[in-house]
Write a structure and sequence with these properties.
The complex is a heterodimer of chains A (about 575) and B (about 110).
Chain A (H helix, E strand, L loop, with lengths): L3 H6 L4 E3 L4 E2 L5 E2 L4 E3 L4 E2 L14 H5 L20 E2 L13 E7 L11 E3 L2 E5 L4 E6 L5 E6 L18 E3 L2 E5 L4 E6 L5 E6 L14 E3 L2 E5 L10 E6 L5 E6 L29 E3 L4 E5 L21 E5 L6 E6 L15 E7 L2 E9 L4 E6 L5 E6 L7 E3 L5 E3 L28 E3 L4 E8 L3 E4 L13 E4 L1 H4 L4 E8 L4 E8 L8 E3 L3 E6 L2 E6 L5 E5 L10 E5 L2 E8 L3 H7 L10 E7 L1
Parallel strand pairs in A: 6-36
Antiparallel strand pairs in A: 1-4, 2-3, 5-11, 7-42, 8-9, 9-10, 10-11, 12-13, 13-14, 14-15, 16-17, 17-18, 18-19, 20-21, 21-22, 22-23, 24-25, 25-26, 26-27, 28-29, 30-31, 31-34, 32-33, 34-35, 36-37, 37-38, 38-39, 40-41, 41-42
Chain B lengths: L1 H11 L12 H17 L22 H10 L16 H14 L6
Helix pairs in contact in B: 2-4, 3-4
The chains are: A mainly beta (about 575), B mainly alpha (about 110).
């Protein structure tokens, strides 16, 4: 008689199963067994929170002004991640103490930027668990664990960078390329939209952006030959309002920059969170690498709109203008790193600009009304792949090109610099941008470019030579945007891949391989640190409640990613969420 | 009896042993570089989700046939998908890949 326990052991249900026990001789004894179905969604029986009411469009557009909430991934509409909390000063932050911890119960990196509203902290984890925690106590109010398929198509770990909040809804995108909406007070699932087929190489990892009642979210898959896009969904109904393809199809403007039919598997994913500029009514979105990453033979041309800053009409998704950072990319220099909206004086003119530390090692300043390149300077200590001409177009060094038998050390590595997986921050009082960065150069090896749907389409590889030779390091750099030069650098022995938070009190919070750290925003001196037992990959936030000031972090990395960045891989797996308090 | 068993075993294997087939180690390297390395197995030792393939520790068997089967069938419930029937030269390309892995394996030492 076959063992019925074996048949159900492969399902997701936890089983308490007493096996059928054959007695001596011919008889078999029937024994009872229970099948216990483990839940994966815990809905609150009644609305939680303090009764604050729905999050309005107006609140989101002023999100950077609140001390008692944190509403957006970037902190505000300008990308500053600058908390107005004055209590977080260099003198006071040494008094931060650990207030609470939550194990995520998941492996891989924790990249969350939490949302705080109405006495509730919304935390997402790797592999798409969503916790709603009571902010005063850390108690779990409701929880949802997304059931991802086992054969996800991921290049770079299983992260999620947080929810978006609007009305009485929170939204989370998932690794199998869905967008889900929940009632923010009970956790009831409102709707679930499939963005794309995960088994064709698509996934989604970023926090959506809310603009005009729509949740804007882009997909990942630049290592799988997807055709990139970002979508706008009506938050109330889940209906798709528009889709913006980042790679033009035959007959569309820009397709002439793709040889033959290479646009069909062109990549240009849109896997980070953009910004909405109410002043110019423009939605800014950025894109990543063309496919295949390290072999451009089949896709001769600039490959628009990969590695680009896109200015888009928010209601329609229609393109206004673009600027491409790295045309015909052969290094995987995704152009979708953190952006800031600033005023920038050049000569006698004050320009409204988008400023960006790019993965390729250059800090760009682009006029955000015209798309004109104004300036580009290196923010890293090692940049040797290219220089920029007067229009910001790279002049590529021949030694940087991938070959079948590479010998050249190319800087920055494929992973950058700064990377779209974490944030930067900006202090408007000091005009300093704080950039967590990696200095880890690599070799680039060219291989065959073979497209097979749903399988890696990279055409080559990187060899992380600086990690191998133990010379990879990192820093948090304060970059004076007006002057175009580095103001100070805090060096770390290992690549830094944590996000950043700036405070009005003059502190920069970030992290490293050894934990959470805080620096004096004026000098870069380290003034506080806390070893959470795991590297920091998350985006710290701060808020105030009942007279106390809180700072929150996720901790935990993927050893695979650490290996790819040239960072140590010995740290334990497993994620944590931590809240610190200043009383 | 043992000769018949050997013959049956030979027929049951759908793979011609590598030593009997012409394999192209260089093409195997090109395939590895393109499909297996970048964000998966890599070329450097160190802990990764996708195992390092150039030591002598094989999770699913280190013989030619076992490595062929792992690449061809994938590993269920993991992100190692199946490559069988997908490469340009089919099973020949998988054999090329296997020959590259075995030629550079830590087992040689």
């Amino acid at each position: 008689m076959s063992d019925p326990c074996k048949a159900i052991a492969s399902s997701l249900a936890a089983i308490i199963c007493l096996a059928t026990v054959p007695a001596t001789g011919q008889e078999e004894m029937q024994v009872e067994y229970d099948v216990v179905e483990m839940p994966s969604h815990w809905v609150a029986p009644a609305p939680t929170g303090k009764g604050a009411g729905p999050v309005t469009e107006e609140m989101l557009r002023k999100s950077g002004s609140y001390t008692d909430k944190w509403l957006q991934y970037h902190g505000d509409d300008r990308g500053y991640r600058h908390s107005p909390i004055k209590a977080l000063t260099p003198e006071k932050v040494k008094n931060l103490r650990l207030a609470g911890l939550l194990p995520t119960g998941t492996l891989g990196q924790q990249e969350v930027s939490p949302v705080v509203y109405d006495g509730i902290i919304y935390v997402t984890t790797s592999y798409n668990r969503l916790f709603a925690l009571e902010s005063a106590t850390g108690k779990t109010l409701w929880r949802y664990d997304h059931q991802n398929p086992k054969d996800l198509r991921l290049c770079c770990g299983p992260p999620n960078r947080g929810v978006a909040i609007y009305g009485n809804t929170v939204l989370m995108a998932t690794l199998d390329a869905h967008l889900l909406a929940f009632d923010r007070r009970t956790g009831a699932l409102l709707w679930n939209r499939k963005m794309a087929d995960y088994d064709k190489g698509y996934s989604a990892t970023s926090a959506p952006l809310i603009v005009k009642g729509m949740a804007v979210i882009g997909i990942a898959g630049g290592e799988f030959g997807v055709r990139g896009f970002f979508d706008a969904y009506d938050v109330k109904t889940g209906e798709l309002v528009w889709r913006h393809y980042t790679v033009p199809a035959a007959g569309e403007p820009g397709v002439e920059t793709w040889a033959g039919e290479s646009w069909k598997t062109g990549g240009a994913p849109a896997w980070t969170t953009g910004l909405y500029d109410a002043e110019t009514d423009t939605l800014f979105w950025t894109t990543g690498n063309p496919s295949p990453d390290w072999n451009g033979d089949s896709r001769k041309g600039d490959n628009l709109y990969s590695n680009s800053l896109l200015a888009v009409e928010p209601e329609t998704g229609k393109l206004k203008w673009h600027f491409q950072f790295t045309p015909h990319d052969l290094w995987d220099y995704d152009g979708n790193t953190h952006i800031f909206l600033l005023d920038f004086k050049q000569g006698n003119k004050v320009h409204k600009v988008v400023a960006q530390p790019n993965r390729n090692g250059y800090f760009y300043v682009i006029d955000r009304q015209s798309g004109e390149f104004l300036r580009g300077n290196a923010y890293l200590e090692q940049v040797n792949w290219a220089t920029l001409d007067a229009k910001g177009r790279p002049i590529v060094s021949p030694h940087a090109l991938p070959t079948e038998s590479p010998t050249e050390r190319v800087c920055p590595s494929n992973a950058g610099g700064i990377n779209g997986a974490w944030t930067a921050a900006y202090n408007p009082d000091l005009n300093l941008a704080f950039i967590p960065a990696m200095e880890a150069c690599s070799q680039f090896q060219k291989g065959l470019a073979i497209y097979m749907e749903g399988l890696p389409y990279t055409g080559g590889t990187f060899i992380q030579v600086d990690g191998r030779n133990k010379i990879a390091y990192g820093h948090i750099t304060a970059y004076d945007v007006a002057k175009g030069e580095v103001s100070w650098r805090y060096h770390d022995p290992f690549p830094v891949s944590a996000g950043a938070l700036s405070t009005a009190g003059g502190v920069v919070f970030s992290g490293s391989n050894s934990g959470a750290i805080a620096l004096d925003a004026r000098s870069g001196e380290k003034i506080w640190s806390f070893n959470l037992g795991a590297p920091i990959r998350s985006q710290p936030i701060a808020w105030q409640e009942d007279g106390k000031t809180y700072v929150a972090y996720g901790a935990g990395d993927s050893p695979s990613l650490a290996a790819m960045f040239g960072a140590p891989t010995h740290t334990s797996d497993g994620g944590l969420f931590a809240v610190f308090v200043l009383e | 009896m043992s000769r018949i068993a050997g013959l049956i075993a030979g027929v049951a294997l759908s793979v011609a042993p590598l030593s009997q087939a012409q394999t192209d180690v260089q093409r195997g390297e090109q395939l590895f570089t393109a499909l297996c390395s970048a964000y998966c197995h890599g070329r450097d030792p160190g802990k990764r989700e996708a195992p390092y393939l150039f030591d002598c520790e094989w999770l699913h068997g280190g013989s030619e046939e076992e490595i062929f089967a792992t690449v061809s069938n994938g590993v269920p419930d993991t992100r190692m998908v199946s490559f069988g029937g997908k490469l340009p030269n089919g099973d020949d390309d998988i054999r090329n890949l296997v020959s590259f892995l075995m030629a550079n394996s830590g087992c040689q030492e």
